[in-house]
Write a structure and sequence with these properties.
The structure is a single chain. The protein has 225 residues and is α+β, with helices and mostly antiparallel strands. The protein has two domains: 48 residues, no CATH class; 158 residues, Glucose Permease (Domain IIA) (Distorted Sandwich), CATH 2.70.70. The strands form three sheets. The chain has an eight-stranded antiparallel β-sheet, with no helix packed on it. Strands 1-14-12 form a three-stranded antiparallel β-sheet, with no helix packed on it. A three-stranded antiparallel β-sheet has the order 4-10-8, with no helix packed on it. β6 and β7 form a beta hairpin. α2 runs antiparallel to α3. The chain is elongated, with a radius of gyration of 18 Å.
Length: 225
């Protein structure tokens, strides 16, 4: 890898107009007072960095469930998937990945499969690290039907700062494992509901890399040797 590639990452197209707005404000601030302009320049650089979209190397071994987001595992607990996804009212193991404003916010499919459901629900903007954010906050859920027919729900949840969830996929479309399917602007969280009996291979506090870190393996279930 070349030196400049270590620091300069591709930017997702969703971020272009935000960076342009930040840059325009920075120019105005330079005219008003130079120190303010440098603050604006720093915020413009942060905005560009927020929308970075680096390439990822997704593990190819069958049966893996990969993290859909960069961030920290904030919760691992049993929970019923959101009602709007139309799934059975049965608690599954939910792994929540909290993204701070310094994480890459491009979301990637944890498994390969066909999208059978996309459902948006308006809501509040509580701190996304809180447990009740899953129930109360603005969210967008998708259900991916895996090759074995089992559904895997993934839910994008807006956070304290976030005000816009973006989903690039639709019902009936196919996703590859690690493929980009959406993003959330400025702080948020992703919930993955593991298939019944599948044991998570991560712990609360663990750092996750979207498209690369293994959350679980469908062959690793409760009671397995």
């Amino acid at each position: 890898m070349k030196m400049h590639e270590t620091f300069i990452k591709p930017m997702h197209p969703e971020g272009r107009r935000f960076v342009a707005i930040f840059a325009a404000i920075a120019l105005v601030l330079f005219v008003i007072w130079e120190p303010l302009g440098w603050i604006g320049a720093g915020l413009t650089l942060w905005c560009y960095y927020f929308f970075r979209d680096p390439e990822r190397v997704t593990p190819a071994r069958p049966g893996l469930i990969i993290s859909p987001a960069d961030g920290i595992v904030s919760l691992i607990e049993p929970a019923v998937p959101p009602a709007e996804l139309g799934l059975p009212d049965v608690a599954l193991t939910r792994v929540s990945v909290f993204m701070s404003v310094f994480n890459c916010h491009v979301n990637r499919a944890p498994v390969a499969g066909r999208v059978t459901r996309v459902a948006y629900r308006a809501g509040k903007f509580l701190n996304a690290s809180l447990d009740k954010a899953s129930a109360d906050n603005e969210r967008n859920g998708i259900v991916i039907e895996m090759a074995d027919g089992r559904p895997l729900p993934v839910v994008q949840i807006a956070g304290l700062v976030a005000r816009r969830i973006v989903c690039f996929t639709g019902e009936g479309q196919s996703l590859g494992r690690g493929e980009r399917f959406g993003l959330i602007r400025f702080g948020s969280r992703l919930d993955v509901y593991l298939p019944d009996g599948v044991v998570p291979l991560v712990r609360v506090g663990q750092t996750m890399v979207a498209g690369e870190t293994v959350i679980a393996e469908t062959a690793t279930t409760k009671g397995a040797a």
